[in-house]
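Risk mitigation, structural track. In case the binding assays with manganese (II) ion fail to produce interpretable data, a predicted complex structure has been prepared as a fallback.
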Amino acid sequence: MRFVHVSDLHIGKQLYGYSLIDDQRAVLQQIVDIARSENAVGLLIAGDVYDRTVPSEEAVVLCDRFLVAAAQICPVYLIAGNHDSAERLAFCRDLIRGERVFISGADHARAERIVLQDADGPLNLYLLPFFKTSQVRTKYGDPHIDTPDKALQRVLQESGVDPGARNVLVAHQFVTAAGVELQTADSEEFRPEVGGADCLSADLLKDFDYVALGHLHRPQNVGRPEVRYCGSPLVYSESEADDRKSVTVVDLGPKGTAPEIRTVPLVPARPLRVIRGKLEDLLAAAGSADVSADDYIAATVFGSPVDARKRLQAVYSHLLNVKYEEERALDADADPAGRLAELRQQSPAAIFADFYRKMNGTELTGRQQQEFAAAEERAREAAREAEGR
Ligand SMILES: [Mn+2]
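Fallback model:
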């Protein structure tokens, strides 16, 4: 049974004031085309369908066209992510199930089961909208549900998962496993907390033959290949500029056999490029092999040349942002050993004063200088004590 797994569409998203609707229309068409060429039996959309709980009109129109087109290829199964309103997303859900669009309900504390059939027998597909621990605690009136793992345990118990059956889960949460460091991106509004206080443990998902996850925008597996974030279909922040976005295609055979999992690349209509260098070089780069004048451009300019933004804008039609890098930092890049030798000549107070000036654009006050001197003295004392021991 072959599924195409996507997530984090964020339909209606803007990037530095630019509407991404045309880019999204193009990439959603690619997803429909992939579902067709792969002969998928289902398109799984693992949450964050929209970028906002109250999506714009053009976002609703695009989502509408996308779901209609996709449902002509194969059934569509979608859940609400943290960016969606589960209630709004579920509009007319009971009606449109008949048209092969299955939307998770507004109940955050239970996964809905849909039973599918193929030559290998039944397969239980569970649709679980994004939930918070507090929602599960409130729903079941159980004060002991005070961690994400306890909440998930209760949700799975209430959902009646049969370990012996073929099971697939569609969910939108932070999931982690021992020894796994989640790869985050700047376009995710929330980050998994250090130490994993808001992360669910992948161990609790052992009864699922595949877990189609959304929430993280970079494709990645969590512990085992069958617990997978497929990632967002487009680059939604500078930090993802080098990511290759894709959909995940998963083939499930009989229970007990490992599913076959692979990716199919998505090609952005307008790529996002990060460029960095002297203003003249950045202006000259437009139209080179690497950069096109109508790409989305995040620029870092060396020094602080006059009218850098204006001049870049005159060349690049989709300039996102301009950052400046100090000449001093450049020298350091060019000659790190020399810079280090120079720093060693200076007192800690002088280095700190210089750093403060760069960060804040103002000088340390007398009081702040005293504070620093006191802190430095305490540090020296601590070091002397440590040596004496
Ligand atoms: Mn998201």
